[in-house]
Structure formats: C-alpha cells, structure tokens
C-alpha cells in the first residue's frame, strides 16, 4: 500500500470538525451534525483532541482522545473514538492513526493508552488485541440516569 499521500493532523477548527463528521458518523450514527458539533465544543473544553488521517485532502479516519490520570492507569490517553471510513478500511489506516496516538501519548508523559469498544465490534477487538497488542483488563459498565 502506498501511503505517500497520507498524513495525520489535529483538527482544531469548526470547519475541520464538520469535514470529519461523515467519518465520525459511521461510528456514532445516532449523532446529528449539530449535536456532534455542540458536544465537540464542550469536549474540547475538557481536553478532548481530534486527529484525522488524511488521504490526499480527504479525511479517511479519525481518532478522538483525552489525557487523563487515574489510580488504575496512571497518566494515560483514553481513545474515545477511532474509525476509518468504511470504503477505506483494510489499508492500515487504523494502525497508522493509533500508532500516532501512542507516540503523541508518550510525548505527553503518558504511561499507556486505553480505550473502550462496543461488545458487538468483534473485528475491532481482533484488531486491538492481535494487531495492536492491546489487552482486555476489565469490563466497562454504564447506567442511564
């Protein structure tokens, strides 16, 4: 695969976030564009960063992360969102983007990268465990209020 015209950038403007919406909506189909932008503005205040893998000038994949410190992971980056556009999968873009996040985390003094993945996303689990070297140390629980 030729990745000569592939690069990763941080998306920091509302215009860039809008360009990323079609890719993000593949992972979060329940989000309308305006709701996505409203939440993203709030999340940015809390430290959320959005990275995009560009193929030429087109966004092919995105990753949304935050740096946190907890008792169980220490200082770490949590990956909230990682998705490659469906017609561009199996080109190594997810690996390239997650590798970028890992380097970015190390540059910020993080000890590890953590993420959560929906139980139904079996292919994603195989990718994280078999190709990226992640382990599954716990289950995540949520309760609606």
TrEMBL record:
- Drop me one GO molecular function for this one: acyltransferase activity, transferring groups other than amino-acyl groups
- Source organism, top-level taxon: Bacteria
What is this protein's name? Answer: GNAT family N-acetyltransferase
Q: State the UniProt keywords alphabetically.
A: Acyltransferase, Transferase
Q: What is the native source organism of this protein? A: Paludifilum halophilum
Domain spans labelled N-acetyltransferase: 6-145
Q: Which PANTHER family match?
A: ACETYLTRANSFERASE
Instruction: Give the matching PROSITE patterns.
Output: GNAT
Pfam families per the record?
Acetyltransf_1
Q: CDD domains, per this entry? A: NAT_SF
Family annotation (InterPro entries): Acyl_CoA_acyltransferase, GNAT_dom, YpeA/RimI_acetyltransf
């Amino acid at each position: 695969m030729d990745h000569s015209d592939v690069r990763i950038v941080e998306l920091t403007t509302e215009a860039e976030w809008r360009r990323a919406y079609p890719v993000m909506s593949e992972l979060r189909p329940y989000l309308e564009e305006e709701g996505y932008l409203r939440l993203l503005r709030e999340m940015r205040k809390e430290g959320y960063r959005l990275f995009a893998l560009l193929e030429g000038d087109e966004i092919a994949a995105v990753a949304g992360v935050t740096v946190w410190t907890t008792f169980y992971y220490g200082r770490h980056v949590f990956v909230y969102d990682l998705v490659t556009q469906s017609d561009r999968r199996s080109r190594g873009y997810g690996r390239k983007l997650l590798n970028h996040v890992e380097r970015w985390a190390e540059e910020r003094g993080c000890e590890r990268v953590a993420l959560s993945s929906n139980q139904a996303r079996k292919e994603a689990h195989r990718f994280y465990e078999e190709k990226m070297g992640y382990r599954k140390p716990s289950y995540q629980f949520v309760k609606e209020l």
